[in-house]
Design a protein that fits this description.
Blueprint (H helix, E strand, L loop, with lengths): L1 H34 L13 H11 L6 E7 L2 E5 L12 H9 L5 E7 L3 E10 L9 E8 L1 H49 L16 H47 L5 H30 L9 E4 H12 L6 E4 L6 E4 L1 H17 L6 E9 L2 E8 L31 H11 L3 E6 L5 E8 L11
Parallel strand pairs: 7-9
Antiparallel strand pairs: 1-2, 1-5, 3-4, 4-5, 6-8, 9-10, 10-12, 11-12
Length: 453
């Protein structure tokens, strides 16, 4: 607003100067026309300077801020009527300006003590007769009224500007408060979040950049909360499941009789079995913890027909069953072949544990509706509908056969691998009996950004 006011002031000042110059040029032009014309009384060119000047003064109608003075023989002889009076003629600044312009003529701006800014223009006229002295037309323009009007306009502009600045300031404070409210909430929420509680979220309101930032921060908090939850779950699971085998190890070591070779051999086999069991448990827990890492998957193009047949060939070593190939999908897909192989073989291993020799275990794949399906079905005990969600959780177990020493992590690993691919695990009844466990994955392009838990 200050810059706008300055520009307006400069432009208006230039306009005033231009208007005054136009008035002066107009008077000079009119005077030159009369000077080059004929005397209306004689019909001849003007021979008397004073006659020329007086006739011009009589015919001219001056503006309110303008005054004409005629000089003959260096003396002021007559002036046009005006609202300012004759006092300007006695002003020392005016008299000095007239003296300076006596030879060359022209315009000079003076600062009068009474009238402030005054433009003085002198037009010299020489008489054609040598017996008569020369004369001059003096044009006086008073700029004080125009300048005062501009000053009053700028004062009004200043008052209006201050009022609007106050209004804009109040509006800006109100709007800034509303805009910064999410940032304040963000700061307070961040201050309240502790290492043991990352469940707090910032309220999302509106649809602007601040809301987008809030949404991004909430997403970051969600990922942090998920990561810390996974860490705590890993520690809780590891501590809980390792407590029993460690207790067994300690108890046998404390009661071990070093003098009895038979007991040493029996205890050694028992402890090695517990160590192997702990190693499998730790390996499964570490795998589950890694599923949330961005480098968990290494996707690549995989031939689905070759993958399905390879899975069946590898699964045959898991047990004496009637292994069958249902069908295979055509073409290639983008997925992590190693992790998918691990998941399907885990399903096949579960199928072996819940079937008897001679039972059917089948593996197949299909591609339909933008999805890729990989499944394992068997003719064993099946999974009760009430247990299907529980067995997909960590350490969740349904009805198992005697001798099954699993930890309840197998299907949770399968689900984690499916989730990392953006898919899911579905458990259904097989026909005529048994379980049908299927991994369903999106049929993604190679450039697709993979989801992260």
């Amino acid at each position: 607003m200050a810059s706008a006011g300055l520009i307006v002031y400069v432009l208006e000042s230039q306009r005033i100067d231009s208007t005054l110059n136009q008035q002066i040029d107009q008077e000079i032009e009119e005077f030159r026309v009369l000077e080059g014309g004929l005397d209306p009384e004689t019909g001849e060119p003007f021979e008397d300077v004073e006659r020329l000047l007086r006739l011009f003064l009589e015919r001219n109608v001056t503006d309110d801020d303008e005054m004409l003075v005629i000089y003959v023989d260096g003396q002021a002889r007559q002036s046009s009527p005006n609202q300012f009076g004759q006092a300007i003629l006695d002003d020392p600044a005016y008299q000095q300006a007239i003296d300076r312009l006596s030879r060359r003529g022209g315009t000079e701006v003076i600062d009068s003590a009474r009238y402030h800014e005054v433009w003085v223009t002198r037009v010299n006229v020489e008489d054609v007769r040598s017996t008569t002295a020369g004369g001059a037309l003096v044009i006086i323009n008073y700029a004080d009224d125009e300048r005062s009007e501009l000053d009053r306009t700028m004062q009004t502009y200043g008052v209006v500007t201050l009022i609007f600045l106050g209004f804009i300031t109040l509006l800006a404070l109100w709007r800034a408060g509303r805009l910064l409210a999410p940032l304040t909430a963000l700061r307070s929420t961040a201050a309240e979040i502790g290492a043991t509680d990352l469940s707090r979220r910032i309220p999302e309101q509106g649809n602007d950049d601040i809301t987008a930032l809030t949404r991004t921060i909430n997403g970051m908090l969600e990922r942090l909360d998920s990561g810390f939850t996974a860490q705590r779950q890993f520690l809780d699971d590891a501590g809980h499941e390792l407590k029993t085998p460690l207790t067994v190890l300690r108890g046998h070591l404390e009661l071990l009789d070093h003098g009895d070779p038979a007991e040493l051999a029996e205890t050694r086999d028992l402890l090695l079995d517990e160590v192997d069991r702990m190693s499998r448990l730790v390996g499964d827990l570490i795998l589950l913890a890694k599923t949330r890492r961005p480098d968990f998957l290494v996707p690549g193009e995989v031939d689905l027909d070759h993958l399905t047949r390879s899975l069946l060939a590898k699964a045959r070593a898991l047990g004496e069953r009637d292994w069958q190939l249902d069908e295979t999908a055509a073409g290639t897909a983008v997925l992590d072949e190693q992790k998918i192989t691990q998941a399907v073989l885990q399903l096949a291993d579960n199928a072996v544990k819940h079937t008897d020799p001679g039972d059917t275990v089948a593996i197949g794949s299909a591609r339909e509706g933008g999805r890729i399906r990989l499944w394992v079905r068997d003719t064993g005990d099946g999974i009760a509908p009430a247990d299907r969600e529980a067995v997909l959780e960590r350490f969740g177990r349904g009805r198992v056969r005697p001798g099954d020493d699993g930890f309840g992590l197998g299907l949770s690993i399968v689900r984690a691998i499916a989730d990392a691919h953006g898919g899911e695990v579905v458990i259904e009844d097989a026909r005529p009996r048994g379980a049908h466990v299927e991994i369903t994955l999106p049929d993604r392009a190679k450039e697709t950004t993979w989801p992260r838990s």
